[in-house]
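Subject: sequence -> structure tokens, single chain

Hey, anyone have a minute? Need the predicted structure for the following. Not urgent.
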Amino acid sequence: MKLRKLIIKNFRGIRELEWLPEDDELICLIGHGDSTKSTILQAIEYLLYPRYYLQLSDTDFYYCDPDSYPISIEAILGDLPESITNDDFLNAHFVFWDKTTKTLSSSELHETDDKSIKISLDVDYSLEPIWNVLGESEVPDEIG
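Reply:
Had a minute. Here:
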């Protein structure tokens, strides 16, 4: 599984980040201390969290203010394993990532496309995480 695109909003010290990794094979985060490298990795971990219960606190929100800054973490994942591509629920939500233009393409699979999935994690003042899969229509369908 490969990260194609990552969007983080209001998570810890990140107000808004949109990242398109340049290389499929190797991702390396380089920066000074306190430049949000660990925060980016933590956001990816939370998005792909293996259990339903994710314990969050006010300090996970931008400015520690869950009322004003709800968390949103979204990713497009490609090069999916067979266990995901064969899943009936997820099959209805696949999107196609054009590896050349680094954008979502039409609903038809082209030579340069990668069958991908778009998932999101949203958390508001209730501190209850909600994971969704977003298909081509962008209508969230809750996972769980």
